[in-house]
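To close the section, here is one more complete example, presented without commentary so you can practise reading it yourself. The ligand is iron/sulfur cluster.
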Amino acid sequence: MTARVSIDGAACFACGLCYVLAPNVFVEGHEGKAELNPRYRSGSPYEGLVPDELLPEAVRGMMTCPVKAIDVAEVDERLEKLKNAP
Ligand code: SF4
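Output:
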């Protein structure tokens, strides 16, 4: 199972909690705002897919954010593959 993680860059106020408590998923970006670890980005610094083993950490970051700027959603991998097929 893979999870889609997204960060609302407008809502984030750079408190740093998510990237301190979930450093494998979130990193400090421009002006202290949260960004997704570059390894898992899909185009934007604010969105991407993280592997199953990082799901608990992603959820920890989401639960920690005081302004609910982080969303974590389950992804249907079969559907993703079909969508990305040539
Ligand atoms: S916990 Fe929320 S407000 Fe704080 S840096 Fe992370 S996304 Fe931004």
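Once you have examined the tokens, check your reading against these statements. The pocket of iron/sulfur cluster is lined by residues 7, 12-18, 33-34, 64-65, 67, 69-70 (CB under 6 Å). The chain has one domain: 2-84.
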